[in-house]
């Protein structure tokens, strides 16, 4: 397909040539959990979040869960009306028009590109840590600090993940079953071992779980609260991948929505268990194994696996490695299908809409995502030694933006039927409205706070915090790319965006 194959949006249906019915409810939930990557995510986010909110860590995780659940309700309703792999791009375009829809799609693409580079970076760290533990040679772990070695290994991970994703959902599903089961087993083992140390009096801090830990109003300031929530939003991010594979899921109009809710509930249960275990074991001091210690914040599990799990610590290194590698692969699903949809409807050049005949996957878009993620990581690794922390915080901003816009799209799209009953009011109006407003408030607050050079890792460009430069710069780049695409194919932006809709199921 090329640019001349693009028809006017009003003339298109949603059959893009993807493999229909290749994923069921269980497979969808497994892919959702894999994309969230609990082992990798918590290792990277526990420290920065605890640094912002201290012992209120469980409260912030619960607060971060609430807008995710509210937004997921809105996503479910939109998917029932329009099961389309473009998700945010398609739905926001339908509700608010092609300009805001394009930027919503850009926000999703930016978030996934950020996390792809971050996932690859974490995989590199834990690869060399695992090799050092296996061989007993600590010098091997230091290889991750070498920029050429780090970037080269990262590119190899990205290439391998892209290759699996290129081969379609069947290959993706098989790989994910094994890797997800392993990381969940190790995380539960780690939590049980940490609680065991606390009970035996051998934990580093040995704190007793307290009710005040669950009180979000105990956070010192709204800025710290918003920063903590933005980081906790990062740890839940990825569940919407189950919506982007809706055209490849059995029961396209209903199964993805159920999978999204189920994925979030599984994850919040797991996160609360692990957060309480680590907080009880380590505390939040800035010394030793305390989560406030800057020397261990970027990789909490790397520091705690030994004292908590003893000789089995290597399993945690392998779990985080497999988690980041699995998520790296499953995360390719989302940007590839978003770019596929944008190419299909004319919002990107037609080559992005190419589907491989053999694997029925978005081949060109998958390769494009791999190239962009690799280039971004290579540049960021040179610019900032604290690339992981800064991209995590920036990712939180991007997620708040595109989730918030999508939730409000649900409110506007269903505005004429939202008041026909209590169920419609709650699921098509109130839940997505509250979720969307909360996330957009957090986006604005975090954007403002991140201008401070001390925000995040403390890296800055021209006296402005690197997190702000990344976040706002990425959005401005989206505007530029949108205007360039407008010049290339103005018909998408000028005509009313339409898709073939399925009836809404009550």
Q: Can you walk me through this structure?
A:
This protein has 506 residues and is mainly α. It has one domain: Amino acid/polyamine transporter I. It is 68% helix and 1% strand. The protein has helices at 25-36, 38-53, 57-81, 88-96, 98-135, 147-166, 169-200, 222-236, 241-244, 255-282, 300-309, 313-331, 333-344, 363-383, 387-413, 422-449, 466-488, 491-494, and strands at 460-461, 464-465. It has a two-stranded antiparallel ribbon with strand order 1-2. Strand 1 and strand 2 form a beta hairpin. The longest helix is centred in the N-terminal third of the chain and has 38 residues, at 98-135. The chain is globular. Residues 1-12 and 500-506 have low confidence and may be disordered. InterPro entries: AA/rel_permease1 (IPR002293), APC_superfamily (IPR050367). This is Amino acid transporter. It is found in: Cell membrane.
Q: Brief overview, please?
A:
The chain has a single domain (3-494), classed as Amino acid/polyamine transporter I (Up-down Bundle), CATH 1.20.1740.10.
**Beta fraction:** under 5%
Instruction: State the end-to-end CA separation.
Output: 37 Å
Name the overall outline. Answer: globular
What percent of residues adopt helix (DSSP H or I)?
Answer: 55-70%
* Biggest β-sheet: strands ordered side by side in the sheet: 1-2
